[in-house]
């Protein structure tokens, strides 16, 4: 799977171990930064290009890590077509994909360690959307909101 990855200074400690684990597992990775530890960097500078790549289908799924994961999550969700969530446990990592077609996972680099982050990532990447009518209906409602909000 082709994965997009972004982090700011708050998630930078997890960057190299996660990128290595992804590549060792056979995934391709497109790195959207940060490319160095800079306490003054801003998560939107990395998360927005990642989210746009996910929305355009340039990568199959995205992973964004900031300090808490909150800023990365709400930023990614500003991009139409992105369905992002802040996840810190495995159930939501697969359920979010299966029921809600989540395509961008956010983690808090100051909240989870590598072992838990890697477990969540593996769960997220292994999950597949369930194309049940009720899930499709809900996603259509979300997409309609995105269209209406663009017009305002």
Explain what the structure shows:
This protein is an alpha/beta fold and 152 residues long. It has a single domain, classed as 3-Layer(aba) Sandwich (Ribose 5-phosphate Isomerase B, Chain: A), CATH 3.40.1400.10. The protein contains six helices and five strands. The protein has a five-stranded parallel beta sheet with strand order 2-1-3-5-4, sandwiched between helices. The longest helix is centred in the last third of the chain and has 19 residues, at 133-151. It is globular, with a radius of gyration of 15 Å. The model has no long low-confidence stretch (mean pLDDT 93).
Strand order of the largest sheet: 2-1-3-5-4
CATH topology: Ribose 5-phosphate Isomerase B, Chain: A
Uncertain runs are: none
**Architecture, according to CATH?**
3-Layer(aba) Sandwich
Number of domains: 1
- Give the tally of β-strands: 5
Supply the number of helical segments. Answer: 6
- CATH superfamily placement: Sugar-phosphate isomerase, RpiB/LacA/LacB
Over all CA atoms, what is the radius of gyration? 15 Å
Helicity, as a percent range: 40-55%
CATH class category: Alpha Beta
Major beta sheet summary: 5 strands, parallel
Which features would summarize this protein structure in a list?
152 residues; 16% strand; Ribose 5-phosphate Isomerase B, Chain: A; 5-stranded parallel β-sheet; alpha/beta; 6 helices; globular; single chain
């Amino acid at each position: 799977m082709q994965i997009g990855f972004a982090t700011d200074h708050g998630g930078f400690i997890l960057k190299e171990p996660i990128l290595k684990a992804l590549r060792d597992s056979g995934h391709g990775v497109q790195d959207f930064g940060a490319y160095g530890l800079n306490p003054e960097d801003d998560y939107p500078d990395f998360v927005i290009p990642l989210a746009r790549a996910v929305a355009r289908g340039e990568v199959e799924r995205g992973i964004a890590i900031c300090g808490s994961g909150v800023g990365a999550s709400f930023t990614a969700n500003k991009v139409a077509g992105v369905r992002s969530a802040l996840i810190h446990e495995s159930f939501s990592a697969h359920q979010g994909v299966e029921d809600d077609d989540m395509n961008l996972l956010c983690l808090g680099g100051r909240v989870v360690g590598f072992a838990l982050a890697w477990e969540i990532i593996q769960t997220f990447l292994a999950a597949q959307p369930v194309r049940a009518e009720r899930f499709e209906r809900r996603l259509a409602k979300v997409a309609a909101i995105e269209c209406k909000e663009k017009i305002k």
